Amino acid sequence: MNRYSFLSLFLMFLAINLIGAQNIKIKTGIEVLKQQNFKILEGKRVGLITNPTGVDNVMKSTIDVLHDAKNVNLVALFAPEHGVRGDAHAGDYVEDEKDTKTGLPVYSLHGKTRKATPEMLKNIDVLVYDIQDIGCRSFTYISTMGLAMEAAAENNIEFVVLDRPNPLGGLKVEGGPVEKKFISFVSQYNIPYVYGLTCGELALFLNGENMIAKKCNLHVVTMKGWKRNMRYEDTGLQWISSSPHIPHPTTALFYPVSGILGELGYLSIGVGYPLPFELFAAEWIDAEKLAENMNRLKLSGLYFRPVYFKPFYATGQGKQMKGVQVHIINYEKAKLSEVQFYIMQEIASLYPDKAVFDNANQQRFNMFDKVCGSDNVRLNFSKNNKFDDIRELWNKDVNAFVRKAKKYWKY
User: Fold this and answer.
1) Around 293, how many Cα atoms within 13 Å sit in the side-chain half-sphere?
2) What whole-number distance in Å separates Cα of residue 321 and Cα of residue 310?
3) Angle between helices 249-262 and 339-350 in degrees, nearest 10
4) Most CB atoms closer than 10 Å: which of 197, 274, 294, 382?
5) pLDDT digit string, tens, across residues 244-293
6) Rounded to the nearest 5°, which phi and psi values hold at 217?
7) How far apart are CA 345 and CA 394, in angstroms?
8) Residue 318: which region, alpha, beta or left (left: phi > 0; alpha: psi -120 to 50)?
9) pTM over cut 0.90
10) Helix (H, G, I), strand (E, B) or coil at 45
């Protein structure tokens, strides 16, 4: 062994020990599966749906964990949005390919098909899902999971979810239902916009409430140590970007704050600047006045600070943008998804000729409606530009969902 190889091994050993020395408070599903010596996968041909967020507690990829396990026969990988190794841009088609590290075939679930075909599954006995989600309905990984559950059921194979924390915790639930005609890959299931379940609990909910075409043979490998009031930073785990614009666990908290409004491309929401989803800004906004108006609303747990910046890319690229940064002062009290509607309300109040739906590109209304789960949000709001006009609609069925969801709580 030359000195460079020795140094590489030493640095790897040091990194693993430093990671292991962290104050990690929970065991994710892959850790529990390892602890169980992969018993539920023994003697079966395994297909794995994952991406770079699928790692164990020392950040070894679940791909490599299963590939290296002597009693696991990993035969194929399945790629969601961004790809199994994270090398595809947001929204881009992911192509079928061969994984360069393991040599395994990679079948795309974010390309010509978003649901595994019988041909893809013909040599598989069990599909395993291990992806870190962000607890928001419009994030496409849960759509991939649900469609994979359907495919597993239709092809008589097992489905295993390796559970992971919901970075928003397990108690916050917000946002209205999804109408049938607005079912899409960004609102695949009739659940609230912020749904308060882990991916394993959500899988149990979809299966148990007949929200997929056919029930699958489902097994959830539950975490150890996770509690519903935990946010991601409470777990002690390292965060791996779940998409290019979710670089930190705190970013996941802000995604529901501005992501719906961001679909219109009318205001900058901080994408293209180091504070994605935390800002609302435009060239023509008076930052001080907007901050004053927003703080006058006394929205629980929130504070709005004037901010000035130039986005490096995306909406407002290279322009002097002025607006507000959202600060979450009390997470438990804050209603995250309502913020963007109040921003739209106060924009219309300060600048009547700049009201969002009178000025945004109408071609983007379709995606806005899909993410909302209905066009009634847009149509009712745009009448007076008041959140009160949609408050009841936005909160419709939340309490009923929570009552149902509690049956599937594992923590």
Assistant:
1) 19
2) 6
3) 50
4) 197
5) 999 999 999 999 999 999 999 999 999 999 999 999 999 999 999 999 99
6) -80, 95
7) 15
8) left
9) yes
10) strand
